[in-house]
Design goal:
Number of helices: 5
Number of strands: 0
Largest sheet: none
Shape: elongated
Oligomer: single chain
Radius of gyration: 20 Å
Strand content: under 5%
Structural class: mainly alpha
Length: 129
């Protein structure tokens, strides 16, 4: 049976994932994860200001990380964003000495980033049939 364009199913590319643009789907997932990370980090400012005796280092670190998250999410089309996102996750984990909860948030978002990277690799590979 032919599709509306007149191409037989046998003539379709067998390596297609089924998505119209798998690269765009992976980029969108990465950008969304970075935006959620930025929101989670922003919500950490108030507790840090209440818990810590000197909240200035935590606030500055969080604001810098939020700006980086937003900047990377806006540049998701560039191929270097994937390794830069991994470095960003390491930077959040490196905030552990400021407060342990920032390190835990870094580990959680590093796992989210690893999942996004896994989805990107799966979408780039030919489908299993």
């Amino acid at each position: 049976m032919a599709d509306p364009e007149g191409t037989a199913p046998e003539e379709l590319d067998p390596n297609r994932s089924g998505l119209r643009n798998p690269e765009r789907a992976a980029r969108s997932l990465a950008a969304l994860a970075l935006v959620f990370e930025a929101l989670a980090l922003l919500m950490a400012i108030v507790p840090m200001r209440m818990i810590l005796d000197n909240p200035a280092p935590a606030t500055i670190a969080i604001v810098v990380l939020v700006v980086l998250c937003i900047a990377l999410s806006g540049m998701a089309k560039r191929p270097w964003v994937w390794p830069a996102g991994a470095v960003l996750q390491l930077a959040v984990i490196a905030c552990w000495p400021i407060h342990w909860s920032l390190g835990v948030a870094g580990i959680v978002f590093a796992l989210v980033w690893a999942y996004c990277w896994s989805v990107k690799r799966q979408l780039a590979a030919p489908p299993k049939r």
